[in-house]
Amino acid sequence: MHAFIDAFVIGEGEEVIQDIINTIQRFKSSKVSTFKREDLLIALAQISGVYVPRFYEAAYLEDGRLPIPSRSFPKRQKW
Question: Are 73 and 42 in contact (CB under 8 A)?
Fold first, then answer.
């Protein structure tokens, strides 16, 4: 499904839905005329429990753990 989904929540959606809504609203109401979709996905990926497949490798570690992010993200910011 990673080829068709930009981002989804792992776990309880009720706990992060407000953070997701606030992030999307912030991008939609920003004064920047051309925000990049990539920037929105990076912001969503900083929310605990939100999985953005494009930022992960499609391979698992030998011990079966989840994939390692393919890029590093800044620490989660408080908005």
Answer: yes
**Sign for the pseudo-dihedral over CA of 31, 6, 63, 61:** negative
Specify the length of the chain in residues: 79
**Considering the entire predicted model, what is its pTM?**
0.67
Angle at 52 (CA atoms; ends 51, 53), nearest 5 degrees: 105
> Which residues lie closer than 8 Å to 60 by C-beta, 6 or more apart?
66, 67
**What's the longest Cα–Cα distance across the chain?**
46
In tens, the pLDDT along 54-66 reads 887 666 778 877 6
Reported as type and span, the H/E element at residue 22 is helix 17-28
Angle in degrees, CA 70, 62, 10, rounded to 5: 55
